[in-house]
Specification:
The complex is a heterodimer of chains A (about 260) and B (about 300). Chain A contains 11 helices and no strands. With about 260 residues, chain A is mostly helical. Chain A has one domain (about 45-265): MetI-like fold, CATH 1.10.3720.10. In chain A, α2 (about 45-55) packs across α11 (about 235-265) and α3 (about 55-85) packs across α10 (about 220-230). The mean pLDDT of chain A is about 90. With about 300 residues, chain B is mainly alpha-helical. Chain B has 2 domains: about 1-40, no CATH class; about 80-300, MetI-like (MetI-like fold, Orthogonal Bundle). Chain B has helices spanning about 15-45, 65-70, 80-110, 115-130, 135-140, 140-145, 150-155, 170-195, 200-205, 210-240, 245-250, 255-265, 270-300; strands spanning about 5-10, 10-15, 50, 60, 75, 75-80. The longest helix of chain B is centred in the N-terminal third of the chain and has 33 residues, at about 15-45. The chains are: A mainly alpha (about 260), B mainly alpha (about 300). The interface between A and B is large, with 92 and 88 residues.
């Protein structure tokens, strides 16, 4: 450990403040009795209680959760199987580079381009079936498309860590395919699968652009709700809602770190 | 030779059966990505050469009009409006990345110099905004830029804005918002490099009386280059296409390419032009990364 120069320390602290000051401002306003404006008038928790009466907000919260849970479940299943397919078979150089590209596109492509191209595809598919009307199904498909790649990348690195010795040992002891999968590989892969699923879940909660492009009248999520409300003009209720979302993020981040620490130990 | 027995990971099998099994595992995920990522991408390229009908519908008539429009040509002659928006997006993404890197270095070194236990707390402080929704982090600036607070008062005193107006929407607000949104994307990868820094090399440079700049350029920069590269790409690429920040903090006064694309898929409903702008963004991003790759190598040689 080395001591850092006072100037470095000052700059670092300034930067952390720079990240948090806006969020703290919102948190302060969420417990301020003033209905509009930014002047402090007194402490209240009313805005938080009002959230519970707002059907729109409860609905959006439910949609956000539904979207995240369903898309994460699909993406985790497909991504895990894909990762096994990529790492456990002797693919040639060309196939490998093709597979790598497929996994990297969703990670590096600007999300607005992905969203735009899906709008066009669903627009065309809509003429075949009304399933593809703007709404939850389109949003789930969009989220799964970028989540698969992240899950597969995380699980693949876990598989690389496991290596092939355990598998060979299992075969030598006459384990059947199914037994080997269930009793040896899956438990070893579990930390990777859970980490991938958590990443996918957070990415879904965090997404704004894809949902914004693909949502329909009944599938509004919390980020979309906050965005629409902010454009009409900020209210203390929105501050309360945003502060809650930030607090949930803190809980998720700390929880995820606890989990990964336990796995390493 | 497909039926020859081989031993693969302790299992006696044939090449054919191994191949079939492997393809079965790949099929689900790869078909999904093909159907919802690759094909839409190809279709998108096609759409950018199509025509918009009177009610926003797609007409499959080949034209390069969308690209001409992006380049500024229209019935009424040439205007640089769209090109200006593209250029501004590159500029904003570049400055955002640069400022983020400048702020990220001291922060990473500071965190790495903390005792192990509090290091975890400091890192969490960076990870939380990283995962906090961008919409919230952007509109949170409304508070700091409101007329009652010092920043707007200072701008009023300097004559930049009329009294009692907030310090948004304008370019300054976009830059502030962009840097605060993207900063964690640089700090986290950079920190992972700084943490593993070999200080012996830095000390050796100092012992040999290198200037501070040379110590940084030759002992610190090459060692932290892997993390820095990841951070730069993670910031620059999404910053080029972002639309939440310019939309809320820049408004119509400071439009970026993300807003232009969003307009085409939203209110204007002009998919062909939207697709053309998106591909323009894609090309610009790739050119920038290419330049970065080349310059990046030059720095290593230095």
């Amino acid at each position: 450990m080395r001591k850092s120069h006072p100037i470095i320390k000052a700059l670092a602290l300034f930067t952390v403040w720079f990240l948090y000051l806006p969020l703290l401002g919102v948190a302060v306003c969420s417990v301020n009795t003033a209905k509009g404006g930014w002047v402090w008038k007194g402490f209240t928790l009313d805005w938080y209680f009002k959230l519970l009466d707002n059907e729109w907000i409860l609905n959006s919260a439910w949609n956000t959760l539904e979207l995240a849970v369903v898309s994460t479940a699909i993406a985790t299943l497909l991504g895990t199987i894909l990762a096994i397919g990529i790492s456990r078979f002797p693919w040639g150089r060309k196939t490998n580079s093709f597979l790598n590209t497929m996994l990297n596109i969703p990670v590096v492509i600007p999300d607005i381009i992905m969203a735009g191209s899906l709008v066009v595809v669903f627009g065309i598919l809509r003429e075949v079936s009304s399933i593809f009307d703007m709404g939850m199904i389109d949003m789930i498909i969009g989220h799964v498309t970028f989540q698969i790649a992240f899950v597969a990348l995380v699980v693949r690195s876990r598989l690389a860590l496991i290596g092939q010795d355990v598998e060979e040992a299992g075969r030598d002891l006459f384990a059947s395919n199914w037994y080997l999968m269930r009793k040896v590989m899956l438990p070893l892969m579990m930390p990777g699968i859970v980490a991938g699923a958590m990443l996918a879940f957070t990415l879904s909660l965090d997404d704004f652009v894809l949902s914004f492009f693909l949502s329909g009248p009944d599938s509004q999520t919390l980020p979309l709700f906050i965005y629409a409300a902010v454009r009409r003009g900020v209210t203390p209720e929105i501050h309360a809602l945003s502060t809650l979302v930030v607090l949930i993020t803190v809980i998720l981040v700390v929880g995820a770190e606890r989990f990964s620490k336990k796995e390493i130990a | 030779m497909k039926n020859k027995n081989i031993l693969w990971r302790g299992e006696l099998t044939t090449e054919g059966s191994l191949l079939r099994k492997g393809l079965a595992f790949l099929s689900g995920g790869i078909s999904w990505l093909m159907i919802f990522l690759v094909l839409p991408g190809l279709l998108f390229i096609g759409v950018s050469f199509a025509t918009r009908g009177d009610h926003g519908e797609l007409i499959w008539k080949f034209t390069v009009e969308n690209y001409q429009r992006l380049a500024g040509y229209s019935l009424f002659g040439w205007t640089p409006d769209y090109l200006l928006i593209l250029w501004r997006s590159v500029e904003v993404a570049f400055v955002t990345t640069l400022v983020s890197v400048i702020l990220a270095y001291p922060l990473s070194f500071f965190i790495a110099s903390r005792p192990a236990k509090s290091r975890y707390v400091w890192l969490t402080l960076i990870i939380v905004p990283f995962w906090t929704n961008m919409v919230i982090r952007t509109y949170a600036w409304f508070y700091l830029l409101s007329p009652e607070l010092p920043l707007a008062k200072l701008a009023t005193a300097l004559g930049m804005i009329p009294p009692d107006t907030p310090l948004y929407p304008n370019a300054i607000a976009v830059y502030l918002g962009m840097v605060s949104v993207f900063l964690p994307f640089v700090v986290l990868p950079l920190y992972s490099s700084v943490e593993r820094l070999d200080w012996a090399l830095v000390e050796a440079a100092q012992d040999l009386y290198s200037s501070k700049i040379r110590v940084f350029m030759q002992a610190i920069l090459p060692q932290t280059a892997p993390g820095l590269s990841v951070g730069i790409i993670l910031t620059f690429v999404p910053a080029m296409g972002t639309f939440v920040v310019p939309d809320l903090l820049g408004g119509s006064k400071y439009m970026l390419v993300g807003n232009l694309i969003q307009q085409q898929f939203g209110s204007s409903r002009d998919w062909p032009f939207g697709a053309a702008v998106s591909l323009g963004l894609m090309v610009l991003t790739m050119i920038s990364l290419q330049i970065y790759n080349r310059k990046g190598k030059e720095i290593e040689v230095l």
